[in-house]
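Submission checklist for the structure archive. All mandatory fields must be present; incomplete records are returned to the submitter.

[x] Identifier: Zn(2)-C6 fungal-type domain-containing protein
[x] Organism: Ascobolus immersus RN42
[x] Residue count: 710
[x] Sequence attached
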Amino acid sequence: MSAPPPLPTLQQFLPQQQQPPPSQQLPQASQPPPSDSHLPTYPVTPAKPPRVHSCVLCQQRKVKCDRQTPCSNCKKARVECLSSVSIRPRRRKRRFPEAELLARLRKYEDMLKELGVKLEGDGEKEVPNVEGNGGTPGTEQEEDGCNVDEARVRKTSVNGAWAAMSDEFRDIEEALLGSSEDELETSITRTYDSLYTSDGTELLGFPSNTDIDLTAVHPNPIQICQLWQVFLENVNPLLKIFHTPTTQQQVFQIAGSPGMTASTREMDALLFGIYAFAVVTMDEGQCEMVFGAGNGSGGKKKEMLAKFHYGCRIALVRADFMRSGDITVLQAFLLYLHSVRQILDPRSLFLLTGLSIRIAQRLNLHRPMALTPFETELRRRLWWQLLLLDTRMAELSGSGTSSLTTHWTTPLPSNINDAALYPAMTTPPPSTQGITESLFILLRSELLAFTTTLRLAPPKSREKAISDLESHLNTTYLTHADPNIPLHALTLLTASTALAKMRLHLYTRTTPPSREQAFTHALTMLQNLAACFSNRTIITNWKWFVVMNIPLDAYIFILSSLRLSPSDNLALKAWAVLDELNRTRDLTKRREGQGEEEDVMHQRLCSLAVKAWEAREKREGVVPVPGWIARAREEVRRRRKGESEGSTPGFGGMGLGVEMGGGLAEGGLNGMNTGMNVGGGLGGQGVFGEEFMGGVGQGMEWYWEAGGLY
């Protein structure tokens, strides 16, 4: 296996002035002519102008192109005029059926020889054996061990008794070897697309008018490189959906090309997905440092996020993401879905993640394919990230189902570094034992794969299954992790939270529910969350992941349980953890950008926290009130005042009431069997449903049983 090429630098792709070689430099006018006047002189011919090729549309329509930019035909059709030079030639796929046909002919020829039939030209040319290990170095290998050179030799050896059929087979083989499967596939796809007038993107709210110059929407080359660096630090370690060295080379090449001419429609979509996701992970100060001060009231981050979301939607429609067979377009769509998680209703986003799963299934990402090791690894990574996002959205939307009900056979991603991968490789790299760049994505994929088996396991064997998983994760990954490395620390906390979450849901479903054990595991989840917020690097680079995966089920379970037992040892420990957590991340604080009437989750968490604290004061007397409880009390008081005046809808109208949380604390999660309807009745803003704490079992039966994911 040859070593992968080194990472390129941006300077390699920036246009530079090139000096002609010394042999081609003309003497300056001020210099005297050379003394050797007897030497012959030659006229200097001017360089030929570069040849201008016909555009892609004119070539496809087979009409004359005036070779302008844009050409008159493209202007009339109101489509983008693309030069055929800018379109990368597609790799010709290897054609296994031809090799199989030739091998079969060789077999029949050998059978005739065994029967004593003398073939014409027998012995004139040595034919390689079909069952050999493949040909000479430098030849293209076919799947059955033969190569292209051998196939061509075998073609000339079919004669004798096969003479009548030989010419026909030669004609068929010549036609097959002379045609491209890519050309045939493209022709069929275009014909199929022409049967329908719409691809359905307008139903999803994507813009129908894509006749817009995206060059003005792209940031400048320096900003592109800055956003790419932010993406590498804040997003790539947790997703790893593409090969970083290859994508970096493409990004630098596009950024260094004049007017972004080196970009394709697929790469345009991917770039805008990278821009948007990078901005999501930045704070307001970082956005102003990269893009300058904001002009609007919403801030620079909001302005740039809206701009890049708009560009990404345009680019996705241009790339025909609903029908495209390019994996790059699906990668761009996944990044777009991640970037809108904070502003889009989980119920709506769950529908879009389902669309991404369907696109992936159409591309056969859900099962192994006979592709190169490089392509295989990228497809595995993308498939599992799609599953993880779809599963999380199923949890938040309360649908109770996701793609986990669909069978798939795609193996887990390999435990390797990107340096071990390169496009030209022919053999899979060996999987590494220990820590690699793929540590985080591999651990989350293992957790997701385990939930599918846990759902089907008998209830009595689930505790042992979780213990076996914990032992496997510790042996394979976690014992090699260094808590001082931020990514390793996040991995350790994520694994601990996921295991605690599985056990929390397991113990709340026992008969009778084991409240103390469930409380302990819920407390572990909150302790891990507090550790994430207290780690400066984790919360600086990966705050988007921590915030979007806050274990609200554990938070609600703790507050509800504290209403019944507010003063025992576990309760005192829980109040200390809640104080620490709310000093770094006040979960009763209204979400950014949400109005007073909109953030129902904020209202209900405040009410639940106040009720738990009032139960403690009733039991213990006067207790110093922490700041987050004081803010929650003020919020509840303000809302009740507005309700009494009739100016705003109160808690009672939203099913909050004094009974909120009672069913959870008294009967555990298993006892919440009425009234939740997760995701309903919130006007698209919250996560939990109308009764909030009335009953979780009905809407999230699959979620509790599977244990969910962090």
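[x] Structure attached
Curator remark: Residues 98-131+141-179 form one domain. Residues 111 and 117 are 9 Å apart (CA to CA).
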